[in-house]
From TrEMBL:
UniProt-listed Enzyme Commission number(s): 2.4.1.207
Annotated keywords: Apoplast, Cell wall, Cell wall biogenesis/degradation, Disulfide bond, Glycoprotein, Glycosidase, Hydrolase, Secreted, Signal, Transferase
GO terms of biological process kind: cell wall biogenesis; cell wall organization; xyloglucan metabolic process
Protein name stated in the entry: Xyloglucan endotransglucosylase/hydrolase
One Gene Ontology cellular component: apoplast
Positions of glycan attachment: N105
Domain of life from the UniProt record: Eukaryota
Pfam families noted in UniProt: Glyco_hydro_16, XET_C
Species name: Citrus x changshan-huyou
Family of this protein: Belongs to the glycosyl hydrolase 16 family.
């Protein structure tokens, strides 16, 4: 009897898992007065920006560690001045945050992918990249692997940045504060375009960015407890390899390739900015 009950709970569980990965179920639109929309039965989400306002959404769940994938298709054409932010963040004044930010550009000029990590409200860990493809032509997968040992930012499965837990040398690491997923599309032509040199061309508004195929293999935080499962029907909840995942040698090679060819800014190489010496985590690798 007990095992029959167990089995039916399992089935119920897998049904719930299979229906996840739906924007209606996983996200709330929080900003933009009709400029953010969930379409196609929850399979597509679009954000738009016009002169009056941008728009944004946030996850219903808070997560404490996970492997979180989202496909984005960025604002095409002349997107200079627009910023599409996609990030994890905890609340409060000593928040933790893991950032992807896509800075638009003039037609034909490359987007800048800006990344940062905040711990206890302190960031200053920027790395910026160009991409090896046009991020406006199609959807691409942007992933955050966040486990107790490391944070890995990946694009289409290629790691572009690894931020390791360096607590052993006194560097704080985000590991105690559950975070929500946020995304917004907004105007930042006062700073995003080479210090505000290029202004947003509003004749091309509204600007639109699209999202699909959200997947979180993550630990969901609720009522002071964490429960780790998968929202993907294709990967059973028992697979939590991400929790101790490290970069294998192929991934390390890919990471080096990106950093050599596509990294355009690295705070760890910006000695002028840190006259007292580079941050400790920069000196180890
Ligand atoms: C826009 O493209 C120019 C030319 O390649 C580049 O120097 C600049 O960094 C880009 N700006 C942004 C915000 O990505």
């Amino acid at each position: 009897m007990a095992s029959v009950l167990h089995l039916s709970l399992l089935l119920l569980g897998s049904l719930m898992v299979a229906s996840a990965g739906n924007f209606h179920q996983d996200f709330d639109i929080t900003w933009g007065d009709g400029r953010a929309n969930i379409l196609n039965n929850g399979q597509l989400l679009t954000l738009s920006l016009d002169k009056a306002s941008g728009s944004g959404f946030q996850s219903k769940n808070e997560y404490l560690f996970g492997k979180i994938d989202m496909q984005l298709k960025l604002v095409p054409g002349n997107s200079a001045g627009t910023v599409t932010a996609y990030y994890l963040k905890s609340p409060g004044s000593t928040w933790d945050e893991i950032d992807f930010e896509f800075l638009g550009n003039l037609s034909g000029d490359p987007y800048t992918l800006h990344t940062n990590v905040f711990t206890n409200g302190k960031g200053d860990k920027e790395q910026q990249f160009h991409l090896w493809f046009d991020p406006t032509a199609d959807f691409h997968t942007y992933s955050i692997l966040w486990n107790p040992q490391r944070i890995v930012f990946s694009v289409d499965g290629t790691p572009i940045r690894e931020f390791k837990n360096s607590e052993s040398i006194g560097v704080a690491f985000p590991k105690n504060q559950p975070m929500r997923i946020y995304s917004s599309l907004w105007n930042a032509d006062d700073w995003a375009t080479r210090g505000g040199l290029v202004k947003t061309d509003w004749t091309h508004a509204p600007f639109t960015a699209s999202y699909r195929n959200f997947n979180a293999d993550a630990c969901v935080w609720s009522n002071g407890k964490s429960s780790c499962a998968s929202s993907s029907p294709s990967s059973p909840s028992s697979s939590s390899a991400w929790f101790s995942q490290e970069l294998d040698s192929t991934s390390q090679e890919r990471l080096k390739w990106v950093q050599k060819n596509y990294m355009i800014y690295n705070y760890c190489a910006d000695a002028k900015r840190f006259p007292q010496g580079l941050p400790a985590e920069c000196r180890t690798s």
